[in-house]
Amino acid sequence: MYTAIQLLRLNVGGFNWDLTEEEILEFFDSCDAYWMHNEDPTMPHAQLTSGLCSNGYFNVPEVLQYPGVCEVLADQLRRKLELELTDCFRWVVGSAYSAITFSYEMAKLFKVKHGFAHKGESQQMIWRDGVIRPDESVLQIEELITTEKTLRGVRKAIDEAHGNGNVRFLPVVGCIVHRPASLLEVTDIKIVSLIQREIWKVKPEHCPLCEAGSPRLKPKEHWRELTKKR
Predict the structure, then answer these.
(1) Fewest C-beta in 10 Å: which of 12, 65, 87, 140?
(2) What is the pLDDT of residues 188-214, one digit of tens each?
């Protein structure tokens, strides 16, 4: 665990090796930005503001508010992506709002241009950040991926701004946290992440933890009970 002062003083030079997933999760634990149910039915699980139940929680912006941690995570993801990428690219793009600073850090590391899709009315994505030429490939970076809705919304916005089909996206997307309901889902996009967890949300009547007798708690009001932190 890190103190707030230690998190503020972190820099890339202090982490010149490939961090394990558990080592990366330490940043989240230190920020109270991560919780995962241990499948013990006597332990409580999360009641979301929507009324749905969930078995896990990530708050990535809480971690990225520390610039040094943001830089370290970007460097760690760069290491993983370099093992996957075979094509050159000239842009890194992200989405508003949480992924902006992280995708910017990634663009700095790769020494390429950066842009992000803005949120318009009705939360649809809009591209306003310059013209991507047909010969400039694009790497997409997100801070968190759950259902791929935002991921694909960014691509759609960029495509529509340039004439559909005129922008070449790499078949790989990088992110800090990949948390789908099922890791068995197969899509046409390969997701390279630093952390991977199956996190679902369901109605109480369909919740296996409710059925097993696990009490529901609202994370904001009952964080210590959920995480067992003192």
Answers:
(1) 87
(2) 899 999 999 999 999 999 999 999 999
**Residue whose token pair is 């097993």:** 212
Instruction: Assess if residue 161 is contained within a domain.
Output: yes
Report the pLDDT averaged over residues 71-83. Answer: 98
Cα–Cα distance for residue pair 74/105, rounded to 1 Å? 6
**Do residues 118 and 105 lie in contact, with contact meaning Cβ atoms separated by under 8 Å?**
no
Q: How many domains does the chain have?
A: 1
Instruction: Tell me the CATH number at 91.
Output: 3.40.50.2020
Q: Which residue has the tokens 């068995």?
A: 184
- Give domain status of residue 50, yes or no: no
Whether pTM exceeds 0.90: yes
In a domain, 215, yes or no: no
Measure the CA–CA gap between 31 and 7, rounded to whole angstroms: 9
Please give the pLDDT value at position 35.
93
Domain range for 140: 72-199
Q: Is pLDDT of 230 > 50?
A: no
